[in-house]
Amino acid sequence: MAKLTLLVALSSVVVSVSTRVHAHELQPTIADFTVADEALTLQLRLNVEALLADIDLDAVQDTNDAENAADYDSLRALSAAEVMARAPELLEAWNALPMVQANGVPVALDAGTLTVPEGVDIELARLSDWTVTAVLPAGTQELTVSWPKGAGALIVRQQGVEEPFTGYLDGGQTTDPINLSGGDEMSGWQAFVSYIPVGFDHILPKGLDHILFVLGLFLLSTQLGPLLWQVSAFTLAHTVTLAMGALGWVNVPGSIVEPLIAASIVYVAVENIWLGGLSRWRPFVIFGFGLLHGLGFASVLGDFGLPTAQFIPALIGFNIGVELGQLTVIALAAALIWLALRAAMYTDLEGEEVLVRETSVMFRAVSITGSLIIAIIGAYWVIERVFF
């Protein structure tokens, strides 16, 4: 009984991260910049309220998880006009950084038009569009863009030149010098390498629904074969629709894809409870669900795009990052369960046959308990994504 209790508790730990919801999920800030006649124009798409609340966006991916979530909720409840009145506070902090330097000299940013959409559900993140301008020193040939620590991810995209720069910054990072006449576009290798961590990041820690789906695959059986069949089917399927979605060949609204992804989590978890082994149809069902998850990954890429000339290397790098994230989830779950099993049976080994039998029984307890929790969370998400 003690062993069973230990493993049941462990299964709760494995899925404990899933108690979060997606209502206030965050997206990277996007900065498209152009330079003409020594004037810089930054077109920003950002979550003004999250930045004003000073939430550590490097540490959390949902405002509900932040210590100062109440500050964000208060700001989110403000009208568009009230948010616009507070926005200059951000500009002061950016200029103090400084956010932009021209030929190594800090450049002061001035506020332009800020559009804060009205009518967005109070439970959802609200993305605003803000035009910020600056006068560059005469003869400026290059500039750098910095992003404050704790501000989350920033996508920097140069516009209006040939071979434009595209960069992905985490909070606290600065771009390399960007040639204003163009020519700083990523090489194929640079695009490939730089988008691997982006893909990984969208599994761990950001892809909570994908994490639960992968855990559902893992919890089916202690046998390696069933896991390989499932992961192979899932990987092949989401690779296909990720590529098709990123290329613009397939476009399914998130209002359809997201509830179906949540439903796929429920199905896998429920089947774990009833079957406890790999059925003949499960790899094909997993393949179908993988197509849905690939569309979800494609929507992530659609938020900030891929470098046009290096589209394929960046796409491959992103997909490899996704695979590494999934394998990491499986490896962590396997290590955690193995350690718990070893600790539970360390003083009660009665031979290899008994060990194998007890391991199977205890893993089944973990599988049923963990799958039940995953199914409940997935069902909640289905309701949330369909009706709210």
Describe the fold and architecture.
- About 3% of the residues have low confidence.
- The protein is an alpha+beta fold.
- The chain contains 12 helices and 10 strands.
- Helix content is 53%, strand content 13%.
N-C termini distance: 42 Å
Annotation field: number of helices: 12
Spatially, the strands of the biggest sheet line up as: 5-6-2-1-8-9
The percentage helix is: 40-55%
Relative strand content: 5-15%
The description of the largest β-sheet is: 6 strands, mixed
Strand count: 10
| SSE succession | HEEHHHHEEEEEEEEHHHHHHH
Enumerate the spans where pLDDT stays under 50 for 5 or more consecutive residues.
Answer: 15-24
What coarse outline follows from CA principal-axis ratios?
globular
Helix and strand composition category: alpha+beta
Global Rg? 24 Å
Mean pLDDT: 84
Summarize the topology.
Layout: H1 2-14, E1 29-36, E2 39-46, H2 48-52, H3 69-76, H4 80-86, H5 88-96, E3 100-102, E4 105-107, E5 110-115, E6 128-135, E7 142-145, E8 154-158, E9 166-169, E10 178-179, H6 188-201, H7 208-218, H8 224-246, H9 254-274, H10 282-304, H11 311-345, H12 352-387
Parallel strand pairs: 1-8
Antiparallel strand pairs: 1-2, 2-6, 3-4, 3-7, 5-6, 7-10, 8-9
Helix pairs in contact: 1-11, 1-12, 6-11, 7-9, 7-11, 7-12, 8-10, 9-10, 9-12
Characterize this entry briefly:
This protein has 388 residues and is α+β, with helices and mostly antiparallel strands.
